[in-house]
Amino acid sequence: MGPVAAPARLAPGEVAIHVIAGLASGAGDAIFGGLNDLILVVGPDGAVEYANPAAGLLLGVEPATLVGRSMTDLLHPDDVTRAFEAEARVGTPAASIGVAAPLRIRHAQAGWRWLELSSGRFGRAGSRRTIVTGRVNDDQRSHERIVRLMTDGASVEEVADALPRLADWRLPAVPFGIALDGRGPSRHVTGHPAAVDLLRAVTADARWSDRVGEGPPVSGALADLGPAARQAGRRHGLTAWVATRVWSADGSADAVVLAATHPDASPLGIVTERVRRVAGMARLVVDWAGQRATLEHAARTDPLTGVSNRLAVIDAVADALVHADGEPVALLYFDLDRFKLVNDRLGHRAGDTALVQAVDRIRSVLDPADVFGRVGGDELVAVLRGPSCRAGAEEVAHRAIEAMRPPFRVGGVTAGCGLSVGIAVTDGREHPAPDADELLARADGALSVAKGAGGDRVVMTCGPGTLDSRDVRPEVRRPL
To answer: pLDDT tens for residues 64-74?
Structure first.
């Protein structure tokens, strides 16, 4: 018996050639059928010779219908050149792998779908084939875009608006919506019109909060929602929903991510996975929203008294003047009488304690909706609006003076302070209308007159150069 011949070694790429030869007999599905990524085998003429089952999910067609179609026909016209350039960069060995490139490939129902396409070539010249693999773009670029928006100083609403667009970029046929709730009176709902319509309807239902808590996505049919949601779904041809909620780390903000589906959209499993990924970006946004709200609140709040600081007060005065609509605006300028004696005799810490108590007393005579803040030292400002704000301002001033009469208790010692008030009132008909700085200056001028007259009094000005001094009989008392 002669020697047994050694098996011939296959040249690089020939293993793949043998595999490709058995594609038609089902070997392709045996190898590639369980993958979630797209697999296409492209022949020397550029036509598809094999498409794995995942192609049906990713491209919205039966895989068999792709066989025989040209890759040039499947790619977006603007991406064909880039695709060939990427393939040309594949190395010269008989079998080699190219670098992934984001390219648009035709989707049967959704127009174009971005996929990360990689190619590997094998075989000899004249019979060279290409394996193209594709996966849905990962979240890295999306996260980078969101972070860039935040670092560029965009508003929370602008960043939230970007999330559904990123979701549409992944699944153009699926309506995505985001409902963001930060520190404020209402939610910011944005996204695809159909998803926004549905999201507004379902979030108005109290039971929705129990249905969609923080955690993995949950899903259901439109039929199991309330009447308003079912009506919204019928308007847009929606049949099912997938949603999840995420909370910021400090619990001050949350977002609901919702995707609605219809019979021609991607399968529910794929939609659920996209909801989970978009929710990951939504968590980034709500964490930032909570942090930003905290920082903005701190930037506009007096750290000692907890009321608005000078910046916030000036903005509020300007806003009141802009939106006065012909109605008067009253600005009350408060200053504590004999407050310097408290600081000099008891120290600044005791003075701070007395100032906090004084702020609480003045705040108690104001309406909670009135703007109130500290503009410096022991100077405080309140803003009133409306047809009767002139009489209201005078009443508030007298009540504040009366509230200041009882002595403060500071570290076991009593300390007394009075209160002077300057009021400036616009009549809503001045031309040009005063701005915030001018109105503050008028009230400050009236306050100076009140202080100069001995304090414990109200002085009102209803226009440039007009003063109306209202005395409040001071009681004789010891400052300390």
So the answer is: 899 889 999 99
